[in-house]
Amino acid sequence: MTGPVIGAVVSRDLKLAMRRRADIVSVLFFFIIVATLFPLGIGPEPEILRRLAPGVLWIGALLATILSLPRLFADDYQDGTLEQLALSPQPLALSVLGKVIAHWLVSGLPLALLTPLLGLQFDLDPEILGVLALSVLVGTPALSGVGAIGAALTLGVRGGGVLLSLLVLPLYIPVLIFGAGAVDAASSGLGTGVYFSILGALTLAGVFFAPWAAAAALRIALE
Amino acid sequence: MLEVLNLECVRGERRLFAGLEFRMDSGEALHVQGRNGSGKTSLLRILCGLSTPAAGEVRWRGRHIARAPVEFRESLCYLGHKNAIKEELTPLENLLVSTRLAEEAMEGEGAQEALSALAAVGLSGYEDLPCKYLSQGQKRRVALARLVHERRALWVLDEPFVALDTAAVEWLSGLIGAHLGRGGLTVLTTHQEVRIPGAAMRALQLS
C-alpha cells in the first residue's frame, strides 16, 4: 500500500498551505515583481522584450521556486513531525514524494498559470504565451523534485538559504535551457516537440529519483 | 523482545556510554536515569533507530532493527521532546494525520476513535481549535493521544511528564500501567518521581 501515505502527506501539506496563505502569495508576488522589473528597466522596445521574454520569465520562475524551498522541510524538522515521518513504517521517500507533489501544487502550478499573464508585458503572441505556460507547467515539477534534495541537504545548516541556492541553481540549468529553448523554437516557427520531450524526461527523473536521495539526506540530518 | 547488545554512543568527541546491555520482555518498563547530558535522549533515539550507535546493536524480536525496519516501526510509538504536532491544525486533524501516516490503511471508524482518544486525554471540547491556541500542557496531551490511538507494543517516551499537571501525570502513569498490563513495553526518561501502578519499573543509570 503506497497510495495512502502519499495522499496523507499531500493533503496535510495542502491544508497547512491554505492556513498559511501568505507564504504562497509572497512567492507569487516575487515572481510578478521580478518579471515586471525587466520591461521597466529595458524600456518600451518590443523587439528586445520579445527576444528576452522566455529567459527572463524562466529565470523568474526558478528564483521564485528557490525562495519557497527552505521551508519545505524546515517546519517539519522544527516541530518534530519529520522524526515521526522517518519512524513511519512507510518508506520515507514516499512521504518526500508527497511533499514534492504538494510543493509543486502550491508553487509550480500557480507560477505556470501566472506566466501567460506576465508574458503580455513582453508583447508575446497568444500562441507563444501558450507554449511558455506549457513549458513552465511541464518543467516545474523537476524544480520541486531537485529542490527537495537541496532542501534536505541544507536542513539545519545556519544560513542554509544561500547554500541551498548555490547547490540547486546549477542543477536547474538543463530545465532552464530546454524550457526557454521551447519558447525560442516556437517564436522562430520551429517544432517544439523535442524540447518538451526532454523537459518531460527531466521532470520524470526529478520527481521519481529525487525523493530517494532527499530521504537519505533527511535521515542524515535527523541523526 | 527488546535486546540491547554492547551499545556505545559517541557524541562529538565525548563517549556517552559504552558496553550497554539490557533485555526487556513484554510487560516490562525501563526507567532511564542520569543527569543532564548523560545520554538519555541519545539512547532513546538509538532505540528507535533515528540515530546509529557507534558500536553494538538493538534487536526487536530477535532481529536487528536496521534489517527489519518495517516490522520494528509497526510496533513502535516514539514521543520525543518535540510534540510533533502542527500548530495550524486542530487536535483532531493532527491525530488523524499522524495515524494515517503511521498505519497501512485507514480504518473505517478512524474519526470516531480519534475523538474518543482525545476525550481520553481530556481534550473534549478542543477538537476543532487550532493547536496554536492551546497551552503547553494541552499540546503535550495532543501528542499523548497518539499513544492511546495507535496501540503499538513498544512505547519510547522522552520526558513524557513535562508540562503536565498533577492530574494528567496520574492519568499517564495509569495509562502506562495499563499498557504494561496488556503486555506492552515502555522505555521512558523523567526527572520526576513517578509511580506506575501495578508494575515494577527497572532503573537504568547512565553515568
Give a verbal description of the structure.
The complex is a heterodimer of chains A (223) and B (207). Chain A has eleven helices and no strands. Chain A has helices spanning 3-19, 21-42, 46-68, 71-79, 81-87, 92-106, 108-119, 126-153, 160-168, 173-187, 193-222. Chain A is elongated and about 55 Å long. Chain A starts with a helix and ends with a helix. Chain B has helices at 40-48, 69-73, 91-102, 110-120, 136-150, 166-181, and strands at residues 2-11, 14-24, 29-33, 55-60, 63-64, 76-79, 154-158, 185-189, 201-205.
Offer a few descriptive terms.
heterodimer, A: 223 residues, elongated, B: 207 residues, alpha/beta, 5-stranded parallel beta sheet, 6 helices
Strand and helix map with partners:
The complex is a heterodimer of chains A (223) and B (207).
Chain A: H1 3-19, H2 21-42, H3 46-68, H4 71-79, H5 81-87, H6 92-106, H7 108-119, H8 126-153, H9 160-168, H10 173-187, H11 193-222
Chain B: E1 2-11, E2 14-24, E3 29-33, H1 40-48, E4 55-60, E5 63-64, H2 69-73, E6 76-79, H3 91-102, H4 110-120, H5 136-150, E7 154-158, H6 166-181, E8 185-189, E9 201-205
Helix pairs in contact in B: 3-4, 3-5, 4-5
* Structural class determined from secondary elements of chain A: mainly alpha
What is the CA–CA distance across the termini of chain B? 25 Å
Mean pLDDT of chain A: 91
Return Rg of chain B in Å.
Answer: 17 Å
Mean pLDDT of chain B: 86
- Strand order, main sheet of chain B: write it out: 6-7-8-3-9
The oligomeric state of the chains shown is heterodimer
Largest interface (CB < 8 Å)? A-B, 25 and 32 residues
